[in-house]
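FW: tagging you since you asked about this chain on Friday. Here's the raw sequence from the shared folder, copied in full. Didn't touch anything.
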Amino acid sequence: MIKRIFSYCGEYKHYVFLSPLFVTLETAGELALPLLIAKIIDDGIMAGNLSVVYRVGVYMLILALAAVFLGAGGAKFGSYGAIGIGANLRKAEFEKISRFSFGDIDHFSSASLITRLTNDITNIQNFTMMMIRMLFRTLTQIVVSLVVLFSMEWRLALILVAAIPVIGAAIGLLMFKCHPLFELMQNKIDAMNEKVQENLVGIRVVKSYVREDHERQKFQKANDEFTHAGLRAVLTIILQQPIMMMGITTVTALVLYFGGNMVLAGNLEVGTLSSIVTYIFNILISIMMLAMVLLQY
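HL: got it, structure written out here
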C-alpha cells in the first residue's frame, strides 16, 4: 500500500526526498547534544575548567541553530510532499469514480464514495506526512541512540533492551484491540453521510410532507452512533500514553539506580550517566511515536 501511495508523488517527488533528509540531519544534530552535555559536566564543571564549558557551549548553540533550520525545512518539505500526494490521489480517485457505472455506484453507495474521496484521502495524507517526518526521525533516533548507549555502558543499555519487547507487546495488543473499533467508526461515518445525502436529495419531498422532525431524528441517531463509536476508539487508544509513560519511568528508575551505584563506585562519570538517561528517554519516546505511525497506517 505504501508503494502505491508514493506512486502519486508526481511533481512533488523532490519534497518527499528532501524532507527525510532534513529530518535525519536534524535528528543527528540533536543526538550529538547529550554527548556535549556530558563533556561539559565531566571535563568542564567537575574539573573546574570554564574554557571547556564555553567552547562546548558554542558548539551546542551552533548545533541547536542548525537543528532549528533543518527541522523547519523538514516540516515544510514534508507538508508540501504529503499534501501534494493527497491532491494527486484525490484527483485520480475522482477520475476513477467518474468512470463508474450505475451498478458500481450502487455497489459502493455514493455516501461511501464521498467518504473515500474526502475523509479517507485526508487520513492517507496525514499518515504520509507522519511517515515522511516521524518515521525517519524515530528510526534514526532508535538506531543511533542504541549504538551510542552500548558504546558508553552496555550493562545499562541491556535494561532498555529487555524493556523494549514488553512495551512493544503491550502497544501491539492495544493496536489489535483498536483496529475493529476504528473500522466500526468508519462504517458509522458512511451511515451519517448517507443520511445527510438522502435528506439533501429529497429536501423538497421532506418539506412537502412536513417530515423535518423525522429526518432530524434519523440524523441524530446516526450522529450519536458515530459519536459513541469514535469515543470507544479514542478512549481505548489513549491508553497508549500511560503504558509508555509507565515504561519510561520504570526504565529510567532502574537505570538511575544501577547507574548511581556505578557512579558511587567510581566506574561511571556523572555526565555520562546523564547522557545515558537522555538517550534512553529519546529511544522510548521514539518507540511511542513509531507506534502512532503504525496506528495511523
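FW: DSSP finds ten helices and no strands in the chain.
HL: agreed, and The CA atoms of residues 82 and 160 lie 34 Å apart.
FW: great, closing this out.
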